[in-house]
């Protein structure tokens, strides 16, 4: 009747009449482990309260020399009574969380319904604390156990719950589910931050689906417990007024017009708090086809084999222009790492879905299959900490792949960093990491590469096909070298290293290198793949010059593409690249990416006079 409000093993009991008159202890039952019973026909109406161990209520604000504090359950642990009868009103709750519901049995088997703790711990390892503080039972339809009329054999958090059919006077037990309250040390093993995404006008909705959208990658999709307080920190139990949802798999809802403002946090499986990495962005659909935009995990796993873990821990969705999904006003059919993302046009109230891209967080076992060392090539002095992939490729040649599939970031002391951190402007395996806040700590990054990068590989001879006195600089482009040295270079290199002809590392020369990032602004749906320069200038402003002097094209997996055949009607640095499908001949375009070499004038853009030349080099790569 009062789940979670009484400890399972009280150490004291007090009985009063409802008018407040103390009761003597001469009764049929007056025992903290059993309760109170008066069998005299003239018994008045009594009320009881119990004394519980201090661990059930929390820790007081001060340590006194008296015996340990004891708390009264009917006052919700707001004050404690010491053995010497001093009252101490400044009492703090211990943090407790509430698990999900569990239903392992039904009344048609084994002569009743038993939800015993030992059984549930075995069936759901890691999902229930081994030492619950409280238990609540309801029927599977949501009716409180106290309202069913059933008699219970066991209703205790240390043992669990049991209803035996034979004890029901000819009836049967209902089908029950149970949940537990757990202590702080268990709740905090893998706890999220506090979330307060709604205000109580019309009710306070802190539901898990909306929190997953508003705080991407910060909470697991399948929490194992939930904790709720007011924003001032007062703990809230599921029995509070107006509370209609209080469940780790659903979140929290209060619909009473007088609801205060609440906040919630979740306990996640330990795997969620382990080492994890963030994938690149994926965009396989657009809202003009199929009635909306769906980026479903099964589809993406098929389109990008090896680039996404099969069991993501988190998902984030943005529009292709970079706007957070939570800011678009769209309604989402699916937003879940185990399924993916879906926005249906018909659900938008007359509008249509934006065009979305998604990325995932993946667990340690996947991230570590082909992982680089940690890189810390910059310090956070000046404008920030720039751990960008182009500069890491120069500073650490052959140690990182050119097309990583995931990135992991921590401070140099090892504290994990997620993309939502303050000052973080770049967090992408294809670009690296940038923090531009003046208060940035010192970061380090490492990448997960395709499995082929970690396999057996060989290093070619050095090639020098150009010199800086011709063509306005020195270009050693792969397509050129493949033509000059047929059979001497693989068509799909895993890494590149550049030195001066005298042997000085490229990173030590102070030169600025003028190749843009890779661009992939279209997928090969419809007539083909259009990567023309005018479209790229719009899609990626300030990242490519208007008059490139060279172009390089590969498939998105890195296979070089040469300008041959009728399928590539455009292959020109001033125009870009285009591939046309030819269904009659069976030719279907792959998905391509392009990058350009720009004039020196494009790279020497104006920067603050006190910015180092190294930061200038960073600037020109973006």
From TrEMBL:
TM region(s), chain numbering: 70-92
InterPro entries listed in its UniProt record: CILP1/CILP2, WxxW_domain
Keywords: Glycoprotein, Membrane, Secreted, Signal, Transmembrane, Transmembrane helix
GO terms under cellular component: extracellular region
Domain WxxW: 3-52, 99-182, 192-268, 279-362, 372-449, 460-515, 516-598
Subcellular location: Secreted
PANTHER family attached to this UniProt entry: CARTILAGE INTERMEDIATE LAYER PROTEIN 1 (PTHR15031:SF4), CARTILAGE INTERMEDIATE LAYER PROTEIN CLIP (PTHR15031)
Protein name (Swiss-Prot/TrEMBL): Cartilage intermediate layer protein 2
Protein species of origin: Anabarilius grahami
